[in-house]
Amino acid sequence: MVVSDAARWDRRWSAFEGELSPARVLLDHLHLLPEAGVALEIACGLGANAELLAGRGLSVQAWDVSPVAIERLSARCPAIEASVRDVVAAPPEPGSCDVLVITRFLRRDLAPAFMAALRPGGVLFCQTFAREAATDRGPSNPDYRLAPGELLALFAGLRPLAYRDEGRVGDLGAGFRDEALLVAQRPF
Predict the structure, then answer these.
(1) Mind listing the pLDDT tens digit for each residue in 123-161?
(2) Quick count: other Cβ atoms within 10 Å of Cβ 146?
(3) Looking at residue 3, what DSSP letter applies?
């Protein structure tokens, strides 16, 4: 029996009782957020990133395929426009946001739609798992992990503002490991 993505994530988010923490890509680059505008978080889960964005004064939309995640986020943060949405079937409209946040979600075929969703001057915050990892944290299927430098290639139409992909270089017990991150701006 094949379990749908929504059912799989519903089970995960129903059982989750841990502390929510925004992604490193946002925490380390808060200074690159605009003072106002529309922010969209794709595959938001329980919405730690969306909550941080709302706290910074942005008008926030948060999408996830899991009704459980959206219900929990809506109950916790009613100011966020949280919606059950399959981004593969219905990607964001072109020019619809000033900030786009994508963490631990990888659909290479949607990169052009994600870039188009940004308004001129809009900023992408992206972080997901890398193939060159120091631990076994993250998906075991390499299709759901980035090759070295791949994040830059996927969003080549944007101006990179910050990028990290440390792979297996140097002291594997230090630094930012197992994931790659990119902050990039759509040209004006």
Answers:
(1) 999 999 988 777 788 778 888 898 999 999 999 999 999
(2) 23
(3) P
- Sheet containing 159-164, strands listed edge to edge, beginning at the edge strand earlier in sequence: 81-84, 59-64, 38-42, 97-103, 118-129, 179-185, 159-164
- Residue 6's nearest CA partner among 70, 75, 74 is 70
Determine the Cα–Cα distance for residues 66 and 10; give it in Å rounded to an integer.
Answer: 5
Strand ranges for 53-129 from DSSP E: 59-64, 81-84, 97-103, 118-129
Who has greater pLDDT, 17 or 144? 144
d(CA 171, CA 155): 28
**Where is 6: in which H helix or E strand?**
helix 5-15
pTM higher than 0.70: yes
